[in-house]
Amino acid sequence: MPSSTSSSDIVPVRARPPWALLASLLAFAACEALLWSYPPWIGFCARYAPPYRVSDPLRTSVRIRQLPRHAAQPPVLLIGSSQILEGLDCAAFEARFPSRVCVNLGIAGGTPLDVLFLEGQIEARVEKRVLVTGLFPQTLHLPPKAAFSDTRTLRCLFRSRAWLSMTAHEWIETVYGQVQNLSETLRLKDALWHMWEVVGPDPLGALRREIPAQPPRTLDGRRPLPPTFFQDQIGKVNPEIAPGRFTAAHEIALEEVIAREARQGNRIVVIDFPTRRGYETTITSAAIDQHRRLVERLAGRPEVVLVGRNDLPPLEDGDFHDFTHLRPSGREKMSTRLAEILARAEGTPPNFSGS
Q1: Percent of the chain whose predicted confidence (pLDDT) is above 70
Q2: d(CA 161, CA 180)
Q3: How far apart are CA 69 and CA 235, in angstroms?
Q4: Domain count, the chain
């Protein structure tokens, strides 16, 4: 039986904008902006962010958000790998510069790509600052981290042509990082879950500050490694610590950080970070050569305060937790010397009181 409705009688249905979805997204964005600018919440996260690798994004994010926007003196920001986190103490910088804020933003396995990402977060908060970072062979060849990736990370990967040899997993991590950066809550979700493991058993106690704050470091409470550990490791080369497809991207990232700080008129201190006797026998000769060439290129750069091995205090084997991380005795020596080097670089007189 023929249809009684002709094609000319069909009224086209117009697509309606998804107003409910748009309203939900706008509401979420507004709530998130309010949450991550609310000082009590920032302070709560800063107190209870666990000092583990997965919590690095949360810990660094809240510490950056706590920086004063209009400080009389540029803050001193210690930024880089766990060698910075474990090896430098803000107490020495605060004693040398009483009017300045000092914050340690070191992260596990921190690389120049991570420093570039964190610098972008810092830029949104404070314009004038002093960055203190370090060079360490192992971190110059690692892949990007999803929680510390943004468009500048992509730019370094393309400029270095690393994108041509990235694996599917590495691409997924990098793209996931771009998606995460659309939302601070999404970027920090794993770290927030770990924070909940700390405060979840007694949330009210955490709000009353009855639960102690999480410790800032992870190695000081461990027993020192026995001498036999080092004897067994010397001469055993880890083939993974070698120049690879991400090495050039890290060098480009470091150059971008230096260039951005120079344009802002900020000071950047780069440390050829010390290692325990015998460490270089455990990594490839190619990694050693690449690291030394990078240090040599930075030497003499007027926009960089390069702290070489000869500028550092003498360190004993007992000053190290392992081949690469300092114990409290080594941390005190390093931090005190670096504070003095920074003071000389800025022309600060010895009797400087910060007033």
Answers
A1: 93
A2: 23
A3: 49
A4: 1
Secondary structure of residue 307 in the 3-state scheme: strand
Give the relative orientation of helices 247-264 and 285-298 as an angle to the nearest 10 degrees.
Answer: 20
pLDDT-derived band at 346, boundaries 50, 70, 90: confident
48: in domain: yes
Q: Give domain status of residue 15, yes or no.
A: no
- Would you call 82 exposed, middle or buried from its count of C-beta atoms within 10 A (0-12, 13-18, 19+)? buried
Q: The tokens of 292 are what?
A: 């030394």
pLDDT of residue 14: 64
Is 7 among the domain residues? no
Taking each helix axis from N to C end, the angle separating 168-180 and 151-159, rounded to the nearest 10 degrees, works out to 150
pLDDT of residue 23: 77
Instruction: Evaluate if residue 353 carries a pLDDT over 80.
Output: no
Question: What is the structure's pLDDT at 9?
Answer: 60
**Domain of 113?**
40-345
User: What token pair was written down for 203?
Assistant: 């949330």
